[in-house]
Amino acid sequence: MLIKIYPENPNPKAIDQVVEVLKKGGIIIYPTDTVYGLGCDITNPKAIEKICRIRGIKPEKANFSFICSDLSHISDYIKPIDTSIFRVLKKALPGPFTFIFNANNNVPKLLSSNKKTVGIRVPDNNIARAIVQELGNPILSTSIKDDDELIEYATDPELIHEKYQDLVDLVIDGGYGDNEPSTVVDCTTGDFEVIREGKGQIEDYL
């Protein structure tokens, strides 16, 4: 199913429809402020396994991100952080960054693995944030392309739907996506270390 949602003013009925799919364990493809993402409800282990199968990866090896609507969800999944780091997050988010933190005990339970870290995203995209708000908890997310294929990101929602319609339950057409991924910043040592250059410039917020 392909549904059109306008990012400037997401239609609440359409958002409800997406959330209904997620609550039933469905998989969605949705727009962010970078590339389109493949997502599911993080509280649903079967849906997480399905995403792993689609991407051909083992849950314990997967580098998933949690998409949050704002910073309030983050403390549920990460170990406590310095106020200096929190200050930078407040300035940089919503934005095209994935911040890696030390995970607390809630994360291994969700991913049935021994994961020690978790990536957190608060995208500057009204559709993605409205879905998470309505759902009431983050969505687990991975980009629809491998990190090794930085060019060739799928940007056209209709083409994405054509390719993935038999694998996912719903594709959101939120307009053309970007073809540059998020900047990945490792915060696990209490500092900011860029491990993948992408759309965001962390230096602007330090």
What does this structure look like?
With 206 residues, the protein is α/β, with parallel strands linked by helices. The chain has six helices and ten strands, in the order E-H-E-E-H-E-H-E-H-E-H-E-H-E-E-E. A hairpin with a 6-residue loop joins strand 2 (28-30) and strand 3. It starts with a strand and ends in a 10-residue tail after the last strand.
Rounded to the nearest angstrom, the distance between the terminal CA atoms is: 42 Å
Helix % is 25-40%
Q: Specify the structural class.
A: alpha/beta
**How many strands in all?**
10
Low-confidence stretches: none
Shape estimate: globular
Mean model confidence by pLDDT? 90
Number of helices: 6
Task: Please report which band the strand proportion falls in: under 5%, 5-15%, 15-25%, 25-35%, 35-45% or over 45%.
Answer: 15-25%
Order of helices and strands: EHEEHEHEHEHEHEEE
What would you report as the Rg, rounded to the nearest angstrom?
16 Å
The strand line-up of the biggest sheet is 1-8-2-3-7-4-6-5-9-10
The major beta sheet can be summarized as: 10 strands, mixed
